[in-house]
Write a structure and sequence with these properties.
Distance between the termini: 94 Å
Number of strands: 20
Largest sheet: 6 strands, antiparallel
Oligomer: single chain
């Protein structure tokens, strides 16, 4: 064997002629170059390279080297050997880096699957820039849901949200891969959310390193629980809701409260169909400037309607905050506050173009009033829908908590639903009231309050005498006295006003 190999090395010309060497050198360089291309692709996909791609790099590199050896007397053959060896080094680097990256240990913190659903995390890949979480899910309690990866954080709870953080799932089993590209200190979790306007969490799992898992074990978020713990999605919901109503939010800029319409309603059967009132007539809205309604709504869903908010928040932004929406789409309103509208007459189907439709504060105020006090649907007459609401000031001591999940409001009454956790007393009264600056007293109805016992539960309270003021749900001692847990809510204007009050009872 040694003698044969020695003869082969000393007399390469006997095994390959000049033409053969030239052809072989081209093939060798092609294989070596292919290894370089695959290596570049692997680098671009780091740290998510696949085993097939990794081993293809080595295979191409070794072929380049192996075919380059017989043609090593040629310049191309020598180049193939050099490039092949470089790509072998690249392959070694990728394998080492991938193995190091994949060995991110993780621990499971609190989990909650009260309805039989499940989420299983199989791997967590984390770098300084992002976190990739893979696993399996089993959705049994709903036909559809949103599966999302979030980080509950007290230091930076309102960071940007990326579409790679969530996915829509259907009933049954499946696999998921979610990516969080904006890592902040906090407690990561994968959670299932309903697909309705409330975007309520109903199943979830916390995870992280050992310290994070221990910290997660201390959470008491009062949203929902099962025998194996409480999921932390409620805190995300409440924190993000407060963020939208905060004083620094762009949605607080009253100078941008402008609209060309006086009413905006959404079709419950066609999610991209919008009917508007313009100068006293009703039209189907087709486009604003050069942006189709479908494109604007799709942007609103991605930007503002992701879990835990849902479709209702996307529609609210479209209807009430059109100036901000268009600005976020890099399509700002012109300096004279006009837009080009493409409208369709619902009776005749004829298209109508409004070249310079004025956007005014009066129009936007009419939309806000219509959506707040009368949530009737223009197309289907559904006069009792969930009303978008904002969380104002909250006051909880002794571990008590109140979470509002829905507010339904008409001109006559208000119905508020949510969850409570009474931890500081054996019993208490939970009441829905409206603080008003008026000196006139309003009657109290038994539906405004309920008696609760220590622990967690759901509530539905009805205020049948809606008056101007600042609504809130509060816990009171059974024997009477000041509230010891309180949460204010309402419209943007209401929460702006109640934010000036003191809740240090």
């Amino acid at each position: 064997m040694i003698e044969v190999f020695g003869r082969y090395k000393l007399l390469p010309s006997q095994s390959c002629g000049p033409d053969q060497n030239k052809t072989l050198s081209y093939v060798a360089l092609l294989c070596a170059g292919l290894g370089g291309v695959l290596g570049t692709l692997a680098f671009s996909l780091m740290p998510k390279t696949s085993p097939v791609l990794d081993w293809a790099i080595l295979t191409a590199a070794m072929l380049g080297i192996g075919l380059g050896i017989p043609a090593r007397r040629t310049r191309l053959g020598q180049g193939a050997i050099v490039v092949g060896n470089i790509n072998v080094a690249v392959w070694l680097f990728i394998m080492i880096a991938s193995n190091f990256y994949q060995r991110t240990p993780f621990y499971i913190g609190q989990t909650s699957f009260p309805k039989g659903d499940s989420i299983e995390i199989t791997s967590v890949h984390r770098t300084r820039e992002q976190m990739v979480v893979k696993g399996h899910y089993n959705l049994v309690s709903a036909d559809r849901a949103q599966l999302a990866l979030y980080i509950t954080s007290s230091s930076n709870p309102f960071g940007p949200t990326d579409t790679k953080q969530w996915m829509r799932i259907s009933k049954g089993k499946g696999d998921f891969e979610l990516i969080h590209p904006h890592l902040v200190p906090g407690l990561p979790h994968v959670t299932m959310y309903t697909m309705d306007a409330t975007g309520k969490p109903f199943a979830g799992v916390y995870f992280g390193n050992k310290e994070q898992a221990l910290e997660e074990g201390k959470l008491d978020l009062g949203d929902y629980q099962s025998s194996n713990g409480i999921v932390a999605a409620a805190q995300t919901l409440r924190s993000n809701t407060r963020d939208i109503s905060s004083q620094t939010s762009p949605f607080r800029d009253t100078a941008k409260y402008l609209s060309p319409f006086t009413r905006v309603h959404f079709d419950t059967n066609d999610i991209n169909k919008v009917v508007v009132a313009y100068k006293g007539s009703e039209y189907e809205l087709e486009a604003i400037d050069d942006l189709s309604v479908a494109d604007i709504l799709d942007f609103c869903r991605r930007q503002y309607g992701q879990p835990p908010f849902g479709e209702g928040w996307a529609q609210k932004r479209f209807a009430e905050d059109l100036v901000i929406v268009l600005s976020d789409m890099k399509h700002p309103v012109s300096s004279d506050n006009t837009v080009r509208l493409t409208l369709v007459d619902p009776q005749t189907g004829q298209q109508k173009i409004i070249a310079h439709a004025s956007m005014t504060g009066e129009n936007r105020a009419a939309i806000f009033q219509d959506r707040t006090l009368d949530n009737s649907n223009l197309l289907h007459g559904n006069a009792y829908q969930d009303t978008p609401f904002y969380i104002g000031k909250t006051y909880f001591r002794n571990g008590d908590s109140i979470a509002i999940t829905s507010v339904r409001r008409t001109k006559e009454q208000m119905v508020v639903k949510g969850h409570y956790n009474l931890a500081g007393a054996d019993r208490a009264r939970l009441g829905l009231h409206i603080t008003t600056s008026s000196t006139n007293s309003t009657p109290t109805d038994s539906r405004q309050w309920m008696q609760i016992s220590k622990g967690q539960g759901d509530f539905e309270l009805t205020h049948p005498h809606v008056v101007p003021g600042w609504p809130h749900v509060a816990m009171y001692p059974i024997g009477g006295g000041e509230s010891f847990a309180d949460i204010y809510f309402g419209t943007q204007d209401e929460t702006a006003e109640d934010g000036k009050s003191s809740l240090g009872n």
